[in-house]
Amino acid sequence: MDDLNQSNYSLSASRPEEESPEEFTNPLPRAVLRMNSHALLDGEWHFAHDVEDVGLRDDWALSHTYAHRAQWPGSVEAHLAEVRGQQDGAAWHDKIVVWYEREFNLPEVAEPQPRSLIQLTFGACGYETRVWLNGKPLQTIEGEEVHYGEYTSFSYELDAENLHLVNRLTVRIVDTMDAETPRGKQESHVYKRGGIWYQTYTGAVRSVWLETVERNRLRSRVGVVSVVEDQLVRFNLTLRIHDAGDYTIRMQVFDPQTPNRTAPLAESDFPLHLEPGQWQQRVVMELPGAELWSPEAPNRYRLLAQLIDSEGYAAPIETLFGLRKVESRGRYVYLNNQSVYLDGILYQPGTATLEEMQRHMHAMKALGCNLVRVHIAGVDPRIYNLADELGLLLWVEVPSPHSSTPRSRENHRAELLRLVTLSETHPSIIIWSLYNEDWGAQDIATNPETRQYIVETYHFMQIAYPQFLVVDNDGWHHISNTGRLKSDLLTAHLYTPDLGRWKELLDRLVGGEMEGTAAFPLVVGDPFFYRRQVPLVVSEWGGFGFSDYGGPADAEARTNSIRAFKQELRQRPIAGDVYTQATNIEDERNGLIDPHTGALSVPEGLLASRLMERLD
């Protein structure tokens, strides 16, 4: 397969209006929709635990007798527990290898036509996934025989010559306790101070489906970059081409409230010649008078994008998008050129279902939050869509490895690229954290190679994804290089149940004291002089629910403490805060929201703040 081509930049005039296809809904876990037929392969699969890891050697993909059944989606842990007749998830150590298999009928989707093919997509699966169709190994569109990662989707194009009326799909999944792989807060061989790694939840964790797609098409990923002053919107597109030729990308933007979308607000064509392979292309459209997206007014527009071949055949995709601009400027964060205080909450969804996560999002909005920090976990893209709809800002993080090595950094970068490529459609996502509290970068204070990797990744994100703010290492040990902070925010994790101590810590923070504030020095590398150059964010505080923490024991006392601590935050030139946390999870019992029902244990609006006024 050809390598990705360098992005091109185009601007063209508008075309006359013409009728657009009718609106539709799509239940699949992705942000970008495709107007085609699809069939979910969720449900009962054959299942086997390959205890001795002999399945590859013994060609299980060609033939194997499966003694068990398992529901997809689901976790390896739950499936092992069912096999063993246990109530809770079954623990595993070092390495787990499992196989899944099922049949599907080709007419469930549609037989491929001359212009189309069948695509198989896994919403998320891993950490290592191999797939066979009728005993033949498949490669992802990116050319991977083994797909690595368990937080994002990946796809296979199915060869028509290998498709039958009845087909057998075989999947091998491997995971390990390897500390060099991105794990987030799931346990590994590395001991976490405090011992609060969570139980693993891996394997077939998201839906899998078949769909008909065009041979020459736009892939289901659209990046959106807007600079609100110039009334332009920049779309980053990915094209998949099998047949060389002349094509046109047609972009149409509609008001989502317009019935049947018969009158586009803007429309442009972009002619180009394409060779076989996968290509990236940037196109730019003018959208004068567009209403911006914000928490107070989450305005969105509907994009219909089509790849049209020389014979006029169109392959469409569509998505909702919003226009917004975020900046770290001086002491404050600016959204659409207006300073905004980030009323945040830490969110660790763990094994919550999609329906439970949707309840959580509504509850966090009800608490008065305008920001949700999704803590070192990849979530169903429909949650990002919901945040777009509700007007909730998102701070997302790369699931971290647990050790700092050249290989862990390679795996970290690959995970970052997978995540950001599939999430840059969403106006709600404004901040990315590369690391959290040194997890996966334990030697950040002593190893120049670790710092250099983070600095280079920070610079890469600034250039490739300017629509996001980037935090190098959240909580402490931010990096200074030649006196320049390599983070758009200076963040600190501050925990104390004592209000007097809280005031002291906040005063030290706003006074620019780099040591003696958080658990570790706030900046490493070379000297950095705060001088109110960057926004300060207390990105973790609270934790009042821990039984052994010394915090309030009942909901009323907790409410009063939260209110008092929040008032102290707002009396200082701080750009935002993130209360810890939204829901209870395993032994962390400090949530404000029932993890199942979404009910609040404190009053609505408790974490709300007004827009920050500039302080001279």
TrEMBL record:
Gene3D superfamilies: Galactose-binding domain-like (2.60.120.260), Glycosidases (3.20.20.80), Immunoglobulins (2.60.40.10). Residues 1-24 are annotated as: Disordered. The keyword rRNA-binding does not apply. It comes from the Bacteria. Residues 1-13 have a biased composition (Polar residues). Keywords: Glycosidase, Hydrolase. SUPFAM superfamilies: (Trans)glycosidases, beta-Galactosidase/glucuronidase domain, Galactose-binding domain-like. The keyword Cytoplasm does not apply. InterPro entries: Beta-gal/glucu_dom_sf, Galactose-bd-like_sf, GH, GH2_Domain-Containing, Glyco_hydro_2_cat, Ig-like_fold, Ig-like_GH2. GO terms for molecular function: hydrolase activity. Signal peptide: none annotated. Pfam families: Glyco_hydro_2, Glyco_hydro_2_C. Belongs to the glycosyl hydrolase 2 family. This is Glycoside hydrolase family 2.
